[in-house]
């Protein structure tokens, strides 16, 4: 479903990704963990082209992204990839001038050209699914962080993506609001959604992940099933990280 | 001061005010279009567009409007471009307004959080769709106060067009002054009309601002 081959990414003289190769199969839930600055968020942002890569290849379904420099063809390819990957941001990035339901309808109406009535029905169903049917007509300013993030998840789902990418979806939330967002993500996992999640929530990773990937210093150091990686990490670095976090 | 004076000359001033209003309206309209294009040019990734827009705002904001009007009305005929006073004034003022408005719009767009563009793009929107649906609707609410100031300044600056044989409000007052030698009455009357027009604009912009603040 998603495959990256040896991707490199630098910001100025700082090399953030140093050859990351990873595969996420259809229906699989992969959680990426690692210390801050390890490049895991950048990696996720590269997958849907928010950051152009310097070297390597990203394959999403039938589409391939390489190091691109604003060519028309790449733009079109990139937009196709983006409609197939739902992206959830750490800071929600809801559109503040639209109500919750308008936020969810925006992608289908503007990008997929769905008729408004159809998009509205689907949006309401999605808000119901994330437990926010009663907030459909609220503006983001009147929602809590957890509610905003659930609307953001519904907004991404409205595009009917083949996979969902989560960039530290609970890091900006008050501790008591983390649970409601994780519950929604867990539901998606049970529905069989393909997901790649960057997270600091290790107990959640253990519960929901089919595979856990440990990144450090722009590289994948180790990966495996949660039972294996959390209990018997192969590398000292992984063991140290896990000891310090838990 | 003589009150019957006002009854006699008010219609002349009103005709002048009408020209002032049309000049202001036209230059606001075309200035906003030019300003939007220049603002998008300034923030574009294309270097040619960026330099062109930069040159435009630099040249226009760095020279007096009066000079620009003279350049168009008195200078361009040497190149065979002859314009009547009204179109010359309207074009000059639109071009000038566009340069200032482009900076207002650019500031508004750049004040919108980067995550908004990213969220829009991650849904698969093109750059222009994201601008139209997400960025500009948020930016334009922030543009209302500075745009109000700009339009009021523009209305007052139309008085400069009186130097191009345009009989707008200022020139009408000068005609009355010359014909009657009642300088105090003539300029008081014109001043009151200017004040009335700018007050209407101020009140209107305050209302719009309040109305658009709903979602915040």
Topology summary:
The complex is a heterodimer of chains A (246) and B (216).
Chain A: E1 2-11, E2 14-24, E3 29-33, H1 40-47, E4 55-60, E5 63-65, H2 72-84, E6 85-88, H3 100-110, H4 116-129, H5 145-157, E7 163-167, H6 175-190, E8 194-198, H7 202-208, E9 211-216, E10 219-224, H8 226-231, H9 236-245
Chain B: H1 3-42, H2 47-61, H3 65-75, H4 85-110, H5 114-122, H6 127-157, H7 169-180, H8 183-212
Helix pairs in contact in B: 1-2, 1-4, 1-7, 1-8, 2-4, 3-4, 4-6, 5-6, 6-8, 7-8
Query: What is the percentage of strand-forming residues of chain A?
Result: 15-25%
Global Rg of chain B: 21 Å
Helix segment tally of chain A: 9
Biggest sheet: strand arrangement of chain A = 6-7-8-3-9-10
Number of helices of chain B: 8
The helix/strand class of chain B is mainly alpha
Question: Which overall shape of chain A is indicated by the principal axes computed on the Cα atoms?
Answer: globular
- How is the biggest beta sheet of chain A arranged? 6 strands, mixed
Mean pLDDT of chain A: 92
Topology as H/E string of chain B? HHHHHHHH
Cα-to-Cα separation, first versus last residue of chain A = 32 Å
Structural class of chain A: alpha/beta
> Which geometry of chain B do the CA atoms define?
flat
Largest sheet of chain B: none
Oligomer: heterodimer
């Amino acid at each position: 479903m998603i495959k990256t081959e040896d991707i490199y990414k630098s910001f100025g003289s700082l090399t953030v990704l140093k050859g990351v190769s990873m595969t996420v199969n259809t229906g699989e839930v992969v959680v990426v963990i690692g210390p801050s600055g390890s490049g895991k968020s950048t990696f996720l942002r590269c997958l849907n082209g928010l950051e152009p890569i310097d070297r390597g290849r990203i394959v999403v379904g039938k589409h391939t992204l390489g190091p691109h420099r604003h060519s028309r063809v790449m733009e079109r390819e990139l937009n196709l990839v983006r409609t197939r990957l739902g992206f959830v941001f750490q800071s929600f990035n809801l559109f503040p001038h639209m109500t919750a339901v308008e936020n969810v309808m925006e992608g289908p109406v503007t990008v997929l050209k769905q008729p408004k009535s159809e998009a509205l029905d689907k949006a309401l169903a999605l808000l119901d699914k994330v437990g926010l049917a009663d907030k459909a007509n609220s503006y983001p300013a009147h929602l809590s962080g957890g509610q905003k993030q659930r609307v953001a998840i519904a907004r991404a789902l409205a595009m009917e993506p083949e996979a969902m990418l989560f960039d530290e979806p609970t890091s900006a939330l008050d501790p008591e609001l983390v649970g409601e967002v994780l519950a929604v993500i867990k539901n998606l996992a049970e529905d069989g959604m393909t997901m790649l999640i960057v997270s600091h929530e290790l107990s959640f990773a253990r519960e929901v992940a089919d595979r856990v990937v440990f990144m450090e210093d722009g590289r994948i150091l180790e990966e495996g099933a949660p039972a294996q990686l959390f209990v018997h990490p192969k590398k000292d670095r992984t063991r140290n990280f896990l000891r310090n976090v838990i | 001061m003589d009150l019957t004076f006002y009854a006699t000359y008010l219609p002349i001033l009103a005709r002048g005010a009408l020209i002032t209003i049309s000049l202001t309206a036209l230059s606001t309209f075309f200035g906003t279009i030019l300003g939007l294009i220049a603002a998008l040019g300034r923030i574009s990734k294309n270097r040619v567009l960026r330099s062109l827009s930069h040159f435009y705002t630099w040249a226009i904001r760095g020279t007096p409007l009066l000079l620009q009007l003279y350049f168009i009305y008195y200078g361009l005929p040497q190149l065979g471009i002859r314009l009547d006073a009204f179109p010359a004034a309207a074009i000059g003022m639109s071009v000038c307004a566009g340069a200032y408005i482009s900076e207002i719009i650019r500031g508004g767009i750049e004040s919108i959080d980067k995550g908004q563009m990213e969220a829009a793009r991650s849904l698969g929107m093109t750059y222009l769709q994201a601008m139209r649906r997400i960025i500009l609707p948020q930016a334009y609410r922030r543009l209302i106060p500075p745009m109000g100031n700009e339009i009021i300044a523009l209305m007052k600056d139309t008085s400069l067009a009186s130097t191009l044989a345009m009989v707008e409000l200022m020139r009408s007052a000068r005609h009355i002054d010359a014909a009657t030698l009642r300088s105090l009455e003539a300029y008081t009357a014109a001043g009151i009309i200017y004040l009335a027009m700018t007050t209407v604009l101020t009140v209107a912009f305050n209302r719009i601002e309040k109305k658009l603040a709903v979602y915040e």
